[in-house]
Amino acid sequence: MFLFVTLLMLFSFMESQSEHLNLFGPEAPLVAVAGEDLVLPCFIRPNTSAVDMTVEWFRLYVDDSLVHLYKDHEDRNEKQAQSYRGRTSVFKEELQKGNASLKLSAVQVSDEGEYKCLVDDKSWSDDITVHITVEVLGSHPVITMESYDNSGGINLLCESRGWNPEPEVLWLDREGATLPAEDTQTHRDTEGFSVKRRITVYDYSDSNRFYCRLQQKHHMMETEIIINSKVFDTWKWAVGISVSACLIAVGLIVTAVVCYKKELRQVKQNAEQQRQRREDGQQKLRVAVEFKKKKKLFAVDVTLDPDTAHPALILSDDGKQVTLGDTRQDLPDTPLRFHFASVVGKQSFSSGRFYYEVQVSGKTEWTLGVVRENINRKEWIPRTPQNGFWTVALRNENQYWANADAAVSLTLREKVEKVGVFVDYEEGLVSFYDVESSSHIYSFTDQSFTKKKLYPYFSPRYNEHGKNSAPLIITAVTE
Ligand SMILES: *[C@@H]1O[C@H](CO)[C@@H](O)[C@H](O)[C@H]1NC(C)=O
Ligand SMILES: *[C@@H]1O[C@H](CO)[C@@H](O)[C@H](O)[C@H]1NC(C)=O
Predict the structure, then answer these.
(1) Average pLDDT score over the chain
(2) Per-residue pLDDT tens over the stretch 413-423
(3) Same fold for the domain at 20-135 and the one at 299-475?
(4) Which one of 120, 166, 194, 462 is at 20 to 30 Å from 420 when CA atoms are compared?
């Protein structure tokens, strides 16, 4: 009787204790990142050992639902769903603290859904539900230039695969403003969501930038495309050709084939021209960068030396400008004074590097460069390096010459407004630049200055009929 009462008391005690037990899990859905490990929490409170209990994890709303089973002190996963094989475990040491959480390794998109944690004792059982969302970042968006549009635009396609949840696809301009585009096409497979979105873009500026952005709640990915204005131009032209050529070919297969070939070749040529232009552009850029460095590092202040100027030359008071006057001034004929329309700078250079600029705007003729100090200043001699002159010249408004030992005719794309002169004494280099376009005009290389001083040299040339009256002006070098 006593034993019975004791047993009854013990039983009711256990019962009442079990009645107080509860399972707990996470309050909000869990967000997992594909590829990472995840712990699905599930624990008994107040904490009671679950070592002797059955812990079952299973999926809701799927056929093959067993995720993990712990029973009779061991894992019993014979009936586990295939997709969870080798990826699940319970924490054996934690079980004695009532912690029945599940570890799920290498989370996949297909793991998304609802899970039940069921803990079962002979006298008690409870269950909770855990909701899992798997966030997957898809592939980096790829932009394809699909075709040219008849309206003068270019059709672009942005594509990306493997997202979860479905991302938003946006087309943006360089300022980040959204551009109108076609509807997003979405496709779902085991990898997640695949998305595509097309847009037609137009020529807005010299270098058009467009962005395709894929956006999730917490993530974003972007790809940029830059379309040079020339690509639009090229296309307009190519479209023009193919359209007109093919119009003629309507109804005549042979001609149609010719037309087709012609168009292809045209497009190929365009590609070749573009490559060439790109290379030219890069070369120009290199020259320009070099040139700007020279300006910055080696600029010197040059002023004209009145004691060397031909008597008909008029120099400004600050020694920065020279032009040819109508009359000869009465000046002493010193050994340094030129007998032809020339003047040199006060500054001389016998080592290192130096750079200065001369404005030639409005002139039809000029000669500029550097000269050796011991040149013949009294008689007219050819202005060649051999005679100590390293100069370039303009004649007859548009003929540019480099006065090398055999004169070199220069073909310049634009009229030069300002000439930059750079000298590297040790290298034996005298270079001329078009300052406005930062482009190279001509260089004398591997010259020998025979250890003599070099002087900046200026000749405004003759002023026939007042056409060449504009002055040569030494300007301050600015970046
Ligand atoms: C029960 O949990 C508390 C805190 O959660 C802990 O301090 C205690 O050690 C646990 N008891 C057992 C028996 O594991
Ligand atoms: C259960 O065990 C896991 C693994 O050690 C741990 O991350 C988790 O915090 C534990 N939960 C509780 C409620 O103790």
Answers:
(1) 85
(2) 889 999 999 99
(3) no
(4) 462
